[in-house]
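Final report, section 2: Outcomes. Of the targets proposed, Thioredoxin-like protein is the one most frequently requested by collaborating groups, and we therefore present its record in full.
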Amino acid sequence: MGSNESPKIILYTSYACPWAHRAQIALKELDIPFETVHIDLSVPRTAEYLAINPRGLVPSLSYNGTIITESGIVSQFLADAHPSHLEKTSNEEGGALQRARINFFVDAWFSKVQGFVFPVFKAVAEEKEELAVKIVDAIVKEIEPLLKDANPYFGGATKFTLAEVLTASFVLRVIAFSKYPELLPKSLSAALEAKAPAFFKWANLVVTQESVTYIWDEKKTAERHIERFAAQK
Ligand SMILES: N[C@@H](CCC(=O)N[C@@H](CS)C(=O)NCC(=O)O)C(=O)O
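The predicted structure is given below as tokens.
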């Protein structure tokens, strides 16, 4: 950004939010110092926060005083502004292709898989098994082939790439919540291991990464989800 000084970064976040979690992972992977402002999502946003992000959502990033919102854009911006192991620049050798592949992977997760996850959390116990098959089928068809060369990370990378940054918080919820039958059926984990072994191996490694776990409170987040869906039933 034209200066060797560390940028002044403030992340407006909520640790329970998987979108905000993306920005948390990006900042941690890049090892950039930042301040955290916690936004309480259980109450209406303050006028002060709405002036920062008129949509009222988290995350928002203040980067040397400039506000950037939307988790995908925030994470991409951070990776672009601080070239690193996360992604090559587009004019580096192989960079344009790596970026296209990462974009395709992230798009595949969100357009083909993620939409099947929430309905399983919400479903009553008897319907969970059947609905979870859709998650497995989508991962087998769309994600498994893209992870065949993961070694251990996307595209053979030895460290996280932007593919992991942008999907890890959602993959984490699939892997972690498989331990809570009120959210995901127990069969899910075994089905993924048998039918999508490359995904299963990758996902179980991704969820142990320090950049993913440092703000994650599995028990608290799972309990909150269980309470929320119980109240809706
Ligand atoms: N597309 C947004 C989604 C962010 C989002 O939905 N954040 C939720 C929390 S997980 C939020 O701020 N919700 C507050 C509200 O809806 O009032 C992004 O990627 O940043």
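DSSP finds eleven helices and four strands in the chain.
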